[in-house]
Specification:
Helix 1 packs parallel to helix 3 and helix 7 crosses helix 8. The radius of gyration is 19 Å and the shape is globular. The protein has 3 domains: 77 residues, Glutaredoxin, CATH 3.40.30; 111 residues, Glutathione S-transferase Yfyf (Class Pi), Chain A, domain 2; 54 residues, no CATH class. The protein has 287 residues and is of the alpha+beta class. Strands 2-1-3-4 form a 4-stranded mixed sheet. The protein has a 3-stranded antiparallel sheet with strand order 7-8-9. Strands 5-6 form a two-stranded antiparallel ribbon. It is built from 11 helices and 9 strands.
C-alpha cells in the first residue's frame, strides 16, 4: 500500500505536522508533496486531488482521498491494525479518541493568538482570558489522560498514540510563546520538543522554507526552548564519508562538526542535518 501526503510549510503548518507524524511515528512510508504557502492558494495547488482543499491531504493508492487529519488518522488506523495508533485498553482508547476530537475542534483562542511558528520563539507574550481558558482546559484533559495511562512514559496514555500526534503542535505553541502551564503539562510539552521525530520535522522546516512575515508577533524573542542542537557549520570537502548517510549517493555538500567534515548528496540533506545533527539516526551513527 502506498500513500502520497500533501503538506504545507513545516515551520507553520500545524495540521501538516500532525499528518506527517501519523506516518513517521508509526513507521509507515509515504511520498511527500509540498505546498508553498507563499505561492497560489492551497486549494489551487492541490486541485488534482479535489475535493481536498487544505493540507494535510492524503492520496491512497486505491484512489481514496482524505482532506482532513482526523479522517486520515482513523483511516490509517483501520488500514493498519498492526500499528498502535490507538491505545489497546478500551477506556484509554475511548479517552484518546475523545481528546483527539477535542483538539480537532476546540482551542480557537490559543490557535488564533498563537499560530504555530517553529522558526521563532517569544519570551513575554501576555495570554488573554481566552488563551488562559484554553490552557486550563488542556491541563484538565491531559491530567485525565495521565490518570488513565497504564504503561508509564512521557505520553498521554503511556505509549505514543494519535492523541499525542494531534497535541504536538499545541506543545510547540505553549513552548514557543512562553505560555505558563503546570508541572505535568510542562513535562509533556518538553517530551514533544525532545522527540526526535518532532526535531527532524523542525530541522527540515529550517532547512527548506522562508520566514513568513505574517506570522511575526511584536514580543521579545527568545532562544528556541527545545534541546540545544549539536553545533555544526558549513564546510568544504573532502569529507570522511564518500556517500550520503541518507541516500547512499555520492557526496557534494559538506558540514563540519568538531573538526570532522561530513558529506551529503545535496544541500537539503546537509542543511536538515546542520540544524539538528543528532535528530537523524543515520547521521548520528556516522558521527
Amino acid at each position: 500500500m502506498t500513500y502520497t501526503l500533501y503538506i504545507g510549510d513545516r515551520s507553520y503548518s500545524s495540521w501538516s505536522l500532525r499528518g506527517w507524524l501519523l506516518f513517521e511515528k508509526f513507521d509507515l512510508a509515504c511520498k511527500l508533496e509540498h505546498v508553498d504557502f507563499a505561492a497560489a492558494s492551497v486549494a489551487e495547488q492541490i486541485k488534482t486531488i479535489a475535493p481536498a482543499t487544505t493540507v494535510p491531504a492524503l492520496l491512497c493508492d486505491d484512489g481514496s482521498i482524505l482532506g482532513d487529519s482526523l479522517a486520515m488518522a482513523e483511516e490509517l488506523a483501520s488500514r493498519h491494525p498492526d500499528r498502535p495508533f490507538w491505545p489497546a485498553a478500551p477506556r484509554e482508547r475511548a479517552a484518546a479518541r475523545y481528546l483527539t476530537s477535542q483538539m480537532h475542534c476546540a482551542f480557537g483562542d490559543l490557535r488564533g493568538e498563537c499560530p504555530m511558528n517553529l522558526r521563532t520563539a517569544y519570551a513575554e507574550m501576555p495570554a488573554h482570558e481566552g488563551v488562559q481558558s484554553d490552557l486550563r482546559r488542556l491541563e484538565a484533559l491531559w491530567d485525565h489522560a495521565f490518570a488513565l495511562g497504564s504503561a508509564g512514559g512521557p505520553w498521554l496514555f503511556g505509549d505514543y498514540s494519535i492523541a499525542d500526534a494531534f497535541f504536538a503542535p499545541v506543545a510547540a505553541r505553549i513552548a514557543g510563546y512562553g505560555l505558563q502551564v503546570g508541572a505535568a503539562a510542562q513535562a509533556y510539552v518538553a517530551a514533544h520538543l525532545a522527540d526526535p521525530a518532532f526535531r527532524r520535522w523542525r530541522a527540515m522546516g529550517l532547512a527548506k522554507g522562508e520566514t513568513l512575515p505574517w506570522y511575526k508577533k511584536d514580543f521579545p524573542q527568545a532562544p528556541w526552548p527545545g534541546p540545544a542542537p549539536f553545533a555544526a557549520s558549513l564546510a568544504e570537502g573532502p569529507s570522511e564519508n564518500d556517500t550520503c548517510p541518507y541516500s547512499g549517493d555520492a557526496v557534494s555538500d559538506f558540514l563540519e562538526i568538531d573538526g570532522r567534515v561530513f558529506g551529503f548528496c545535496n544541500a537539503f540533506c546537509r542543511d536538515k542535518t546542520l540544524h539538528d545533527p543528532l535528530a537523524w539516526p543515520a547521521f548520528a551513527a556516522l558521527l
